[in-house]
Design brief:
The chain has a single domain, classed as Alpha Horseshoe (Serine Threonine Protein Phosphatase 5, Tetratricopeptide repeat), CATH 1.25.40. It is built from 16 helices and 6 strands. The protein has helices at residues 14-18, 40-65, 80-83, 92-112, 120-141, 163-186, 206-224, 260-265, 282-285, 296-302, 360-372, 381-397, 408-418, 433-447, 453-463, 500-505, and strands at 69-71, 144-145, 160-161, 245-247, 278-280, 355-358. Helix 4 runs antiparallel to helix 5.
């Protein structure tokens, strides 16, 4: 057993910091003794807000595993966070918050299924978000309760559905949501309730909802192609996301109303420091500082004091490690006063920034790979690849109010010039399908850095890109912990375990003999 030197009195548990706050400050049931009958107009905004908090937790979980985050100086007790030898108590917040959030969307569906076409837009939005959240669960746990889930007291011990079958069903549900929107948009002389202020992501723009549905469906098909026989691989003519999908119910500096990622990693709404137990890895930083690629534009926007930002390899503990500053290494601003900090580019932009459910860069990289593999029969894989890079620069340089700081266009062009001899940036040099795929996934990895960490982790498990060199001990070319107990060749885990609550309350159905080292998500590369 690996014995860890305790650097400070502070005891750190990996799962504790990953359980991002799920306080629903728009919740319609603040007083459990005074239950109310909630309408779809009231449920949707708090459900989307809860999704943002839940997604922030997934980002932290994925960022820890895929080489975005390492343990910082001044803290000890990392335990399973660096050995990967998890128990059912690790990460269990991902399960509970996902199903709690799914109950919100199911409540909308239960109310609106019989109220179409009046509530068509609410029904479709809830169905899309239900698909989004179930994909999160499948990608983390594989088989999960689906067909018998969300039925309340009618089914207290739901059966587990096959993960591939769930993927198939989610694609069908997304098609159904799009058809519901199209029918409502084409209806003549029929009253349709607009989402209006209830839509804290797209402000009622139903074409953007269709684009989100298309993009989630594309992600399902790209990830599971060859493993699932999807009945319909076509897409609505509205196309895919070209703008970032940002949830913002009115985030502000007020208590319990901050952007959830800012609350966790920068400053709390009560003025305290966010989590300081983590820092960037040598591995991810090498894609910015010139070791693998040179990207001083995004590097400066994301990291505090780039290029002298403190970094580490996950699993290395030393008294010489740099401690995280108040506000963390991921807040690039020089103002470290919690009452005034913010309004900067990067990934921690400020307490009022919208939370990224899905960024446009991911949409473009999905399309690029889909064209390369023939899943999409139109489009240019190279052009979409560069669109993805450009969209990443745009997101990183965007301030909370939507304005742009700096020149993302010029800096992206400089990025291409600086790395013109590297096929990970110069797509023309990627002369084989494998190299093209590696370039696409590596650029997606960079674009998702500390934004949607779970998606980068999913893509690594699916493709084994970005590439790692297992013999590297510096952490520059290998993000696996050196004290890993994994039996995999790359020394990384394969999945997390079902939570303790399932073993206690649904023991007859929960899958048995699941290992974090030998059990795979159905789409994973083995």
């Amino acid at each position: 057993m690996f014995q860890m030197k305790k650097i400070t009195v502070v005891f750190f548990m990996g799962v504790a910091i990953l359980a991002a706050s799920c306080k629903k400050y728009l919740d319609i049931n603040d007083n459990p003794n005074a239950a109310v009958s909630a309408t779809p107009e009231l449920i949707l905004p708090q459900a989307l807000t809860a999704t943002a908090s839940n997604a922030s937790g997934y980002n932290s979980y994925g960022s820890q595993l895929v080489g975005y985050m390492a343990n910082a100086g001044g803290y000890g007790g990392f335990g399973t966070a660096i050995t990967y030898n998890w128990s059912s108590s690790d990460f269990q917040g991902r399960w509970t918050t996902s199903y709690n959030n799914l109950e919100d969307y199911q409540a909308i569906l239960n109310q609106t299924d019989a109220q179409l076409p009046l509530y068509s837009y609410f029904n479709a939005a809830a169905r899309i978000m239900k698909a989004y959240n179930f994909e999160l669960l499948v990608d983390a746990y594989n088989d999960v309760p689906y067909s018998q889930a969300l039925k309340g007291s009618d089914v207290l011990t739901p059966a587990y559905d096959n993960a591939a079958d769930i993927y198939d069903s989610l694609a069908v549900e997304l098609d159904k949501a799009i058809a519901t929107i199209n029918d409502a948009q084409n209806a003549q002389g029929t009253t349709i309730k607009d989402l209006g202020a209830s839509d804290v992501m797209f402000s009622g723009d139903m074409d953007k909802w269709k684009q989100l549905a298309n993009t989630i469906k594309l992600r399902l098909i790209v990830r599971a192609s060859g493993k699932v026989n999807f009945p319909n691989t076509s897409f609505d003519s509205t196309g895919f996301l070209t703008d970032d999908a940002l949830i913002n119910p009115g985030y502000t500096l007020d208590v319990n109303r901050q952007n959830p990622q800012w609350e966790t990693w920068a400053f709390t709404s009560t003025g305290g420091a966010g989590n300081k137990a983590w820092m960037p890895t040598n591995y991810v930083f090498s894609y910015y500082d010139g070791t693998k690629l040179l990207d001083s534009g995004r590097g400066s926007a994301i990291y505090y004091k780039y290029p002298t930002t403190g970094t580490n390899r996950l699993g290395i503990e030393s008294s010489t490690l740099q401690s995280s500053p108040t506000g963390s290494f991921w807040y690039s601003g020089t103002d470290r006063n919690p009452s005034t900090a913010g309004n900067v580019p990067g990934v921690l932009k400020g307490p009022n920034a919208g939370y990224p459910l899905m960024i446009a860069a991911e949409s473009y990289f999905l399309q690029s790979e889909a064209v390369l593999r023939g899943i999409l029969t139109s489009g240019d894989a190279s052009a979409l690849f560069y669109d993805g890079i450009k969209a990443s620069f745009h997101y990183i340089y965007e301030l909370p109010d939507g304005t742009i700081q700096g020149d993302p266009v010029a800096d992206e062009q400089q990025y291409e010039q600086n790395n013109k001899n590297n096929y990970l940036v110069n797509f023309a040099l990627a002369t084989t399908p494998d190299k093209k795929t590696e370039a696409i996934i590596t650029q997606k990895y960079i674009a998702l850095n500390f934004i949607r960490g779970e998606e980068a982790w999913n893509e690594y498990r699916r493709t084994h890109y970005p590439r790692i060199i297992t013999s590297d001990n510096s952490g520059i070319y290998n993000f696996a912990s050196p004290v890993s107990e994994s039996t995999q060749p790359d020394k990384l885990p394969t999945r997390i375990l079902y939570p303790t609550s399932e073993g206690a309350n649904n023991s007859a159905n929960v899958p048995k003999n699941i290992s974090p080292f030998t059990s795979y998500i159905f789409w994973a590369l083995q």
